[in-house]
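ARCHIVE CARD
Drawer: 12
Card no.: 0347
Subject: one protein chain, sequence and derived structure
Cross-reference: see card 0346
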Amino acid sequence: MSFADAKMDILEPMCGSGRFFVGFLERGFRMDGFDLSREMLERCVAKIEKLKGGKKNSLLKCCGFDGFPTSKEYDYVLIPSGSFSLMIRHDEIMGALKALERLCKKNRIIVLELEINENIAEKRISDAYSRIRSAKEGGIEIVASGKTIRIDEKENVEYSMGKYELYENGKFIREEEEAFNLKYYAPTEFEKYLQGTSFKVVSKYVGYEKEEDTGQKTESILYVLTH
């Protein structure tokens, strides 16, 4: 939010269930967004409807970067929490960057967070799921687990499976599995993608406290871009 002011038109691609999106709306910012998951967007809309005043004038669409139906150019575009790293192929990464060139006004900013791993080969491939976290509300509990099934060291991509188990009052109800693939960027790797665009790096930060990136070990980097 330190990059935003009340006069800005702000866009959050890959906004999901609104973890960041709704927080901006609550503080009076003008927000638009999109995401490929209809289910997550439904949760985002439900949160928006609970806000005082409704805040229902946001443009919120179920689509990817190439299908967002607007001719508007934005003052500020944000993709936090490593969401950009969910795109693992070169063509989809470049397609997203080209779309961002169109969506962001000249001389304004894009802030995106990338997952970083200098030693992806050290990740362990496993046949067994390991518990990651759980969430409980009343008698309902969801347990999330994951396992790494393949590592592409050339492209720095981890191919994983996630499993979600539903319990009701301690009794197992059902489980679901889904593929979860993530691209980890090596230091300065993202700059190579930017060479095919008009973007330039304004700043690189380690964490949301805006600690300058000086090559220290980190799990993610915030890139501030302009063009």
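Annotation on reverse: Residues 120-183 form a domain with the S-adenosyl-L-methionine-dependent methyltransferases fold (CATH 2.20.130). Helices lie at 21-26, 38-49, 90-103, 189-194.
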